[in-house]
Amino acid sequence: MFKSNKRLVDIVIVVFISTFIGMLSGAVVMYTIDHKKVKSNEYTEVSKIKEIDNMYNTIVNEYYDEVDKDKLIEGAISGMLSVLDSHTSYMNKSATTSFNNKMNGEYYGVGLEVLTIEGNGVLVVNVINDSPAYNAGIKPNDTITAINGETLKDKDATYFSSLVAKTKDEMKMVIVREDRELNFSVTPEKVIIPSVFSNKFTIEGKRVGYIKISIFAANTASQFSEKLTKLEESGIDALVIDVRDNSGGYLSNATTILEMFMNKGDILYSTESKTSVVDRKDETTESRNYKVAVLVNSASASASEILAACFKENRNSEIVGITTYGKGTVQETIDVLEGSKVKITTKKWLTPKGNWINGTGITPTINVSISDAYLQNPTFDNDNQLEVAIKSVLN
Length: 395
Hints:
Elements: E1 2-3, H1 6-20, H2 24-34, H3 40-62, H4 69-82, E2 89-91, H5 93-104, E3 106-109, E4 112-117, E5 121-127, H6 132-136, E6 143-147, E7 150-151, H7 157-165, E8 171-177, E9 180-186, E10 189-192, E11 196-203, E12 206-213, H8 220-234, E13 238-242, H9 251-258, E14 267-272, E15 277-281, E16 291-296, H10 303-315, E17 319-321, E18 329-336, E19 340-350, E20 366-367, H11 372-376, H12 384-394
Helix pairs in contact: 1-2, 8-9, 9-10
């Protein structure tokens, strides 16, 4: 779960600039002017930070070999974050770009996910439906060896992604598929990353809607609303929401989805900081009365657990599967350096009844492990957890 926090951004940026770019003295002067009576222990903290500044300058000036200053600063930031919890971390430019694309739910490109093949080019591992690459006929397991006459055999996946991102015109791609060399023309455009998928099942005359949420991206709630509307227009008697393998995402989108089902005034979750606990209540008049079951597993985390906990504690819905991951904290993202980000844990989140599930997870009301048949051949027909969830909303 991520939120922006300008005040936190300002504080962190001041610390980073002061520590690593040599402006610490100016920051200290400003602090002294505003607070003339500084306690001795505060001077101690300043002197400790000064040691970091001194170490940076020593490494730059005295280390026997050339030093990449950007990497040195990245290492310092990453090192500070590494002593905190496992969800607090630093993301470099490449990781930040991937993170932003994933969380925005859209990006400018051709719709390909690729991996580096040393000395051969880049391997296509996924093609997004209805993307330029999909419509051109590019398929998973294709190897891209050249773009616009430039060979990719000595390039990596990051280079490919950056090349696509800055190209506005048609791209000529040479692709090797099963020892055949093929040529494709693809023009980059805005690509929507689908995070919501739906289906409908009819059991003994009853119609059960099914919605799978793979991640809570910035456009997930709108995708969910569209899928749900189509299911309801076609007629459903109950619904199964599947958040198995969903690691979370934007809390705001999970909140919007919950507001479609809960009653006005219901506590959806609470957040606890160092100083206060804030209840997030449903402020809408929208709600639904049909039965809903939620599918979870050990990889259901964060916003997925908030959704499951809310249905469990507010609507007595069946939670089907195995115990969830147990991530009961909220992270906020902060822009640092040039094109990089950090994620910092700033709050706990609590279930509607005030429970903190960190490290323990949410226990299903119906505990059922996935079958070997499904693991060997993952289809709806082999999904025994889904079968149990459907039966639970028909009782």
